[in-house]
Amino acid sequence: MKKFVIAAVAALAIGSAAQADTLKIGVAAEPYPPFTSPDAAGNWVGWEVDFLGAICKQAQLDCKITPTAWDGIIPALTGGQIDVIMSSMSITAERAKTIDFSDKYYNTPAMVVVSKDSTITPDPEGLKGKIVGVQVSTTHADYTAKYFAPVASEVKTYQTQDEANQDLAAGRLDAIMADSIALDAFLKSDAGKACCKSAGNVKDDPEILGAGVGFGLRKGDPLLAKLNAAIKAVRADGTYDAITKKYFDFDVYGSK
Amino acid sequence: MICPSAAQLSSLELLGFGDCGWGATLVWGLTNSIMIALGAYALGFVIGVCGAFGKLYGGPVGRDLWAVYTTIVRAVPELVLILILYYAVPGLLNELLIRLGHARVELPQFLTGVVVLAFVQGAYQTEVLRGAILAVPHGQIEAARAMGMPPLLVAWRVIFPLMTANAVPGLGNLWLNATKDTALLAVIGFSELTKATQQASSTTKAFFTFYPAAMGLYLVISLVSILLFSRIEKWARRGQRDVRG
Amino acid sequence: MKEFLKPHRIVMALLALVLVVVCVVYLRWDWLAKPKYQALIVTGLIWTIGLTVSTMIIGMVLAIPIGLAQAAGPWYLAWPARMFCTVIRGTPLLMQLWLLYYGLGSLFPSIPWLKDSALWPILRQAWPYAVVALSLSVAGYEGEVMRGAFNGVPHGQLEAGRAMGMPAFTIFRRIWLPQALQRVLPTIGGETVLQLKATPLVSTITIFEIYRVAGQVRQDTFIIYEPLLLLAVIYMALTGLIVLMFRWFEGRTPTRTA
Fold this sequence. Notes:
The complex is a heterotrimer.
Chain A: H1 2-19, E1 22-28, E2 37-38, E3 44-45, H2 47-59, E4 62-68, H3 73-79, E5 84-85, H4 93-96, E6 100-106, E7 110-115, E8 131-135, H5 139-148, E9 154-158, H6 161-170, E10 175-179, H7 180-188, H8 190-195, E11 196-201, H9 206-209, E12 213-217, H10 223-236, H11 239-247
Parallel strand pairs in A: 1-4, 1-5, 8-9, 8-10
Antiparallel strand pairs in A: 2-3, 5-12, 6-12, 7-10, 7-11
Helix pairs in contact in A: 2-10, 2-11
Chain B: H1 11-15, H2 23-57, H3 60-75, H4 78-100, H5 109-134, H6 138-146, H7 151-181, H8 193-204, H9 207-236
Helix pairs in contact in B: 2-3, 2-5, 2-7, 2-8, 3-5, 4-5, 5-7, 6-7, 7-9, 8-9
Chain C: H1 7-26, H2 35-72, H3 75-90, H4 93-105, H5 120-124, H6 127-152, H7 155-163, H8 168-198, H9 210-221, H10 225-252
Helix pairs in contact in C: 2-3, 2-6, 2-9, 3-6, 4-6, 6-8, 7-8, 8-10
């Protein structure tokens, strides 16, 4: 029995050594267009996927996209099931207690989207007595919990941003709050055009909403320096702007 | 290739295998589901055999430990068990490896899913197999022992053949449970049929195309499995008198 | 009780106690002290127990005609009942739940008068969908069970009733149904436990029952195991309660001796 265990562990270790150079990039399994979403053939496409390709080429890493549930993505990182989180994860002090963040690679404000005939404004007065929807485990959920939950009639949390969008279109929600670009993609879609409009950006709170989006790594991971260098290089040589032009007509890096 | 929006595609095109059809994704998800279910069922069966024999013929401590295992697994929801094991299994394995001096190992998602579901299946399999063994006429086992057969030979020649017929209905139900439990893995992000359906329908908004299609696929697995198990039961009961007399 | 005092059982009970004490002392339980989470746990428990009880009752009420239709009904009643049970038992509950909530939800924009109707406040919330999906699931599984139960009641009893000139509904009410229910009481007990274990799925359609609370704690504090362990203990306690309750029921119904 003992020999069997040692042999099995050795086989796993050898197998893992062979895979040691492949970096498992944790991406939320839930679609988050236009940053990451699966297409009909099952490949992952989007701004972040292209950006990842540029970074991995620059840093000469073998990257493999590993879909992971968004709700458990940080525990998956600390537990070793993935090596890097690349899933539009905002850099916050709270999260930085558990994981390390690379430099930011984009920063966009948070927006509230409401139904077409609504008069809601994106602040606590406007959302008094309304039903607000957010995606679970996001900075937007934290922001909503702090500013809107005391006045809103109900805050509903969803596993995916898309489910929140659907419920807004179905009329079950009065407002949703999420990243402005992701919501922009929703508003450009058929369902979004028919049902909803933007109520504007929320007042920024950098402590909760974070200082931009970065890669997530385990604490003390030496890969951090490599990734930061790659981000600098990709921004300097114009690849970043080229990728951004494919998807957006404005700069997503943010001024801060 | 930019695909036209889902409203412009017919249901058949959406489900099909063309460039904009999600058919391949769904079938890939289905294959994943079946493979995870097969792996979990097989491993669970092995655990169940050990558990059933342990509960019936083991020492007092062994019997109690198996009882604790089956009680806990049958009392706690699968989703909770799956979550706990999903974090615990790789975590503990890596702890062990680090203690032994090796590097951490990245467990493939598939393996984690199989181990997690097998843990749950094992408890139910233990109960089904235990009930089936208890239904074997004791006289046959006593006769075999009186002949001086060693315990392993008794198990192989007498217990297993007679127990199979009693176990098959329960085992059939457990197989159906295994195939449906793979849907729970969608909640932790595994790419199997339910997750693929969720992704496809949320990207294309064509719910009433993809959900019924996926449910149809699950139904097909169920019906084929039920047919298969009734054939197996007929084979296992060959030579036994029909109940109707 | 004497069984419990055997030496190996005492040692194992002591070991379990030590394990519990170690867990309580060394793992992080500071989050339990926060009133916010305490309130969430209470609400979550109410949702879980409420959903289990209500869907079992509604499901059983539906299961009786479904089982009866299959056992004694004409083909135009038996066949749809059979189809219903096959579909419910052949597809995962999670899919049924999502199809009902998100699928129906996607139809709402195309029904403009819906928002002004009286149904709207109900259709807006998530719990009606959870109740319907779970009840249909119970009806599908228990319909099968009731079919077997109705078939299993000895025919002699029904014939005797008919010979006495009892009308059909009276036979059903006084002989067939009570006997069928009594036969399946242990199975229904097991199915209630299974229903309890199915309730975590409704957290995916925004209902805050206790499984979701563990997720909330994990999201806020990144503590993984402790909320899940507490959850496992809670579910084990609830299962124990259900088992005890059904054992009491079985003790109260008269059983055939010999």
